[in-house]
Amino acid sequence: MDEEEIVSAPREARSPGQLVALVEALIFVASEPVTTKVLADVLEEERESIEAAIEQLQSDYLSRDSGLQVREIAGGWQLATRTDFHEEVRSFLKTRPSAKLSLASLETLAVIAYKQPVTVPEILEIRGVQSASAIKTLLDKRLIVAKGRKETVGRPMQYGTSKDFLIQFGLNDLSELPSIEDFEDLVQ
What we know:
The chain is α+β, with helices and mostly antiparallel strands. The chain folds into two domains: 16-92, Orthogonal Bundle (Arc Repressor Mutant, subunit A); 103-187, Winged helix-like DNA-binding domain superfamily/Winged helix DNA-binding domain (Arc Repressor Mutant, subunit A). The protein has nine helices and five strands. It has helices at 16-29, 36-43, 47-63, 86-92, 103-115, 120-127, 132-140, 163-168, 180-187; strands at 68-73, 76-81, 118-119, 144-149, 157-161. The N and C termini lie far apart (81 Å).
């Protein structure tokens, strides 16, 4: 046989149901949110077909009042428990709401999330206290990342939130953060 004659057989077309099942399986086994592009590349399908499969999968979970949902998080898709079941899931897992960050770390993270990119002196100005240990904790937990240096005297490092931050807090992007005005309403 000539080399030109050796051609791989074309893949058989998948039914919409098969594609939905494959997308569900890949999202399920992924260790982090998986993008539509990655799904399309792995399955050798058009993005539009993948998007339609995801929509169908979301609709299937919703129509049967499933305890699971397909959520868009950090620019990708992830299988997650429905938010209205979180308390029961926590109880089953015998965990309490996450208290893994100190109040200082949470305050520092909030400043970074809303003001990024931000430097340590700018965080000090907002919080009124040193934040070096909180910055170290947030870097260790990969919730923040260095975003370069500010073009000013001393060229201090600037920090911003990471993809892990979006995943931890179940956000697709920073526009989903509550507005600062919402917090002001709580204080009044």
